[in-house]
């Protein structure tokens, strides 16, 4: 079955073609039957055929993977190179480097027992900055947990991020979440929750609410992994997004694994992207190791979402170079050679650096200085974060209810009384006084 390629060409700012989003498949049996009678059932409008034909995943060509850069950071087709200003490109690169240095140090910090948990983003930095740069800062983000580069790009400081991981008194989340479960109202980034895909129907609901705002100019982007895409919530979210006409970008990070489950065990068929056309969602698949491809796809998807109040699905193909989390040893289920191959051949940071060098925007000297500066910032911030006290213990009773109900007030009092007698047995000096 042949793909009907280039169904629509999007123009960014009316300037130039950006990326083709594939919205439909044309099946040969449909083509062959084009002259035959078309049935008009309430549930499907399609031609009748007189020979029974099943359609399987092998009936389709796979949805192609759009890229702008090759693995040496060279632009493949100059028409596809987005017109991004030098400062923005350099900022995108700096964010990727900062993210990767932060990952190295915070990962080590967990190994040394300084924080309880961490998740790295190696291999997916291009998805973060490519999408963040293409969005408006006011667009609302619903993320999974491996998207902190979006927050960094939006201006969340390394200090805020490190304070969250340490759960200290300056953690914007008041130490109530596991490390890496960030959130920021200021940066329009909804606080993460661990149960997979729960953010997806919520994101669609938020997009539905936005479209009801007069002259709305904000869309929602919802990030999720290939594993999360198997959850029931993901399917519900896709269908609601399509049928309720929601301005949302469904952004799948397909990094090949859901902890130890490889994608070959996660789904049959053509990945996550193939579900888009099936549900009537405009869809594109991109090389997630190429920030420019991600950028073009998100720009076009955003334009579509806001112009038509319709969802778009982007499947960004990448490889999870790091372990799933600090609780995982991925060499138990994949080879070192496989990891090294992806890290060497399709490294998003290297690729983007080579692109910037080709354009004369970057050089080895600047790179050495940036790597050191990025590293030093995290180390210094971490040392400061460690010295900060924990949030006042009484805060754990707050913020659920606007007015604290009597039964919670009773619990506060009980703990106060308990600490008045047995306080010496607790490290109360580690908590900030109220
Ligand atoms: C409902 C639910 N089931 C299981 C888990 C345990 N879990 C945490 S992360 C994860 C894998 C998710 O993989 P994917 O969505 O591909 O994202 P990735 O970690 O690869 O970025 C699993 C199974 C969970 N958090 N929530």
Automatic annotation (TrEMBL):
Entry keyword annotation includes Cell inner membrane: no
Domain Dehydrogenase E1 component: 93-391
Superkingdom of the source species: Eukaryota
Protein EC: 1.2.4.4
Family annotation (InterPro entries): Alpha-ketoacid_DH_E1_comp, DH_E1, THDP-binding
Cofactor(s), names only, from the UniProt record: thiamine diphosphate
Transmembrane feature ranges: none
Parts forming coiled coils: none
Record keywords: Oxidoreductase, Thiamine pyrophosphate, Transit peptide
Keyword Transit peptide: yes
Catalysed reactions listed for this entry: N(6)-[(R)-lipoyl]-L-lysyl-[protein] + 3-methyl-2-oxobutanoate + H(+) = N(6)-[(R)-S(8)-2-methylpropanoyldihydrolipoyl]-L-lysyl-[protein] + CO2
Family the UniProt entry places it in: Belongs to the BCKDHA family.
Function: The branched-chain alpha-keto dehydrogenase complex catalyzes the overall conversion of alpha-keto acids to acyl-CoA and CO(2). It contains multiple copies of three enzymatic components: branched-chain alpha-keto acid decarboxylase (E1), lipoamide acyltransferase (E2) and lipoamide dehydrogenase (E3).
Identification of the protein by name: 2-oxoisovalerate dehydrogenase subunit alpha
Provenance organism: Chilo suppressalis (Asiatic rice borer moth)
């Amino acid at each position: 079955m042949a793909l009907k390629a280039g169904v629509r060409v999007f123009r960014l700012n009316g300037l130039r073609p950006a990326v083709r989003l594939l919205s439909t498949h044309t099946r040969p049996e449909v083509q062959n039957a084009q002259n035959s009678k078309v049935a008009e059932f309430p549930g499907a409008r399609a031609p009748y055929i007189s020979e029974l034909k099943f359609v399987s995943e092998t009936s389709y060509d796979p949805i192609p993977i759009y890229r702008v850069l090759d693995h040496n950071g060279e632009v493949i087709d100059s028409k596809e190179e987005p017109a991004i200003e030098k400062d923005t490109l350099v900022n995108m690169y700096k964010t990727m480097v900062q993210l990767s240095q932060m990952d190295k140090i915070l990962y080590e910090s967990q190994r040394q027992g300084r924080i309880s948990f961490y998740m790295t983003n190696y291999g997916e930095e291009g998805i973060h900055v490519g999408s963040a740069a293409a969005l408006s800062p006011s667009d609302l983000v619903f993320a999974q947990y491996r998207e902190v580069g979006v927050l960094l790009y939006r201006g969340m400081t390394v200090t805020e991020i490190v304070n969250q991981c340490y759960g200290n008194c300056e953690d914007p989340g008041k130490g109530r979440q596991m490390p890496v479960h960030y959130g920021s109202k200021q940066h329009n980034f909804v606080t993460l929750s661990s149960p997979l895909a729960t953010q997806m129907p919520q994101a669609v609901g938020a997009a539905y609410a936005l479209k009801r705002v007069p002259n709305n100019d904000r869309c929602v982007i919802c990030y999720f992994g290939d594993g999360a895409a198997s959850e029931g919530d993901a399917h519900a979210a896709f269908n609601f997004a399509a049928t309720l006409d929601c301005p949302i970008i469904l952004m799948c990070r397909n990094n090949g694994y859901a902890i130890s489950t490889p994608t070959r065990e996660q789904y049959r068929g053509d990945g996550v992207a193939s579900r888009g056309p099936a549900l009537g969602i405009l869809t594109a698949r991109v090389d997630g190791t190429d920030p420019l491809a991600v950028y073009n796809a998100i720009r076009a998807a955003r334009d579509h979402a806001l112009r038509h109040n319709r969802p778009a699905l982007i499947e960004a193909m990448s490889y999870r170079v790091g372990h799933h989390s600090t609780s995982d040893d991925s060499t138990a289920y994949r080879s070192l050679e496989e990891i090294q191959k992806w890290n060497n051949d399709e490294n998003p940071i290297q690729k983007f650096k080579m692109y910037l060098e080709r354009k004369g925007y970057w050089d080895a000297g600047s790179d050495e200085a940036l790597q050191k500066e990025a590293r030093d910032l995290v180390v210094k911030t971490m040392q400061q974060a460690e010295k900060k006290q924990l949030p006042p213990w009484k805060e754990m009773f707050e913020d659920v209810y606007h007015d604290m109900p009597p039964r919670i007030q009773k619990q506060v009092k009980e703990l106060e009384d308990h600490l008045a007698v047995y306080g010496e047995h607790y490290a109360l000096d580690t908590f900030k006084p109220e």
